[in-house]
Amino acid sequence: MRKRIYWLLPDLGSARRTMDELLLARVTEHHIHFVAREGAAMDGLHPANVLQTSDLVEAAQAGALIGSGLGAAGGVAAAFAFDPGSPAALVIGIAAVGAMLGTWSSSMIGSSTPSRRLKRFERAVDDGQYLLIVDVPRTRVSQIEALLQRTHPEARFEGMEPNVPAFP
C-alpha cells in the first residue's frame, strides 16, 4: 500500500531539485507527479496525467456500481416478462452490460471534471506554485517527508491521503 503526499513548491527550480532528490532517494518517476498552472514550464518534471488531475477513477467506480444495480433490476424485470430458461444468467448478463455502460459513460464525464482532491490547491497553483504529488510506500513516508523538509525549507507540506487509488 502507498500513501500520497502533497507538497507545494514555490517555483520551477525548486520543483526540479525536488524531482532530482526524489529520484536519488529511489522513488520512481512513475510515482512522482507535478501540477502547475496552464502554460507553465514543466521542463525536467513528470507532469500529472488525467488520472491524477480529474475525477475519472471515482466516476468510473460509481458508474460501475450504479450501472450494475440498474442492470440487475432490469434483468429481474426481463426475467419475469420473458420467462427465460435461465433467469439467473439473464440477470447476471444484463447486470454486466449495465456495469460496462455505467463505467464507460461515467468515466467520460469524470475525465473532464477537475479532481475534488486537488481543489484546495487551485489558488496556489494559479499563483504560480508547483504542486508535488508523490506516492510512497507506507514504510517510507517519514523518510521522504524528512528528506523534503531538510532539503527544501521553501516548500510547504500540504498533507497526505491515507489511501492511494490502485492504478493512478
Please provide a written account of the structure.
The chain crosses the membrane at residues 62-82, 88-110. It comes from Pelomonas caseinilytica. This is DUF1269 domain-containing protein. Keywords: Membrane, Transmembrane, Transmembrane helix. This protein has 168 residues and is an alpha+beta fold. The protein folds into 2 domains: 2-52 and 116-161, Alpha-Beta Plaits; 56-110, no CATH class. It has helices spanning 12-24, 50-53, 56-82, 87-110, 122-126, 141-151; strands spanning 2-9, 32-35, 130-137, 156-161. Helix 3 packs antiparallel against helix 4 (87-110). The chain is elongated, with a radius of gyration of 21 Å. The protein starts with a strand and ends in a 7-residue tail after the last strand.
What's the layout of helices and strands?
Blueprint: E1 2-9, H1 12-24, E2 32-35, H2 50-53, H3 56-82, H4 87-110, H5 122-126, E3 130-137, H6 141-151, E4 156-161
Antiparallel strand pairs: 1-3, 1-4, 2-3
Helix pairs in contact: 3-4
Keywords: Membrane, Transmembrane, Transmembrane helix
Organism: Pelomonas caseinilytica
Transmembrane segments: 62-82, 88-110
> What share of the residues does DSSP label as strand, in percent?
15-25%
The best one-word shape is: elongated
- Count of separate DSSP helical elements: 6
Mean pLDDT comes to 88
State the total count of DSSP E strands: 4
Would you tell me the structural class of the helices and strands? alpha+beta
Task: Tell me the radius of gyration.
Answer: 21 Å
**Poorly predicted runs of 5 or more residues:** none
Question: Per CATH, what is the topology of the largest domain?
Answer: Alpha-Beta Plaits
Widest sheet, order of strands: 2-3-1-4
CATH architecture name of the largest domain: 2-Layer Sandwich
The helix/strand order is EHEHHHHEHE
Helix content: 40-55%
| CATH class label of the largest domain | Alpha Beta
State the separation between the terminal residues, measured CA to CA.
Answer: 13 Å
Transmembrane segments: 62-82, 88-110
Keywords: Membrane, Transmembrane, Transmembrane helix
Protein name: DUF1269 domain-containing protein
Organism: Pelomonas caseinilytica
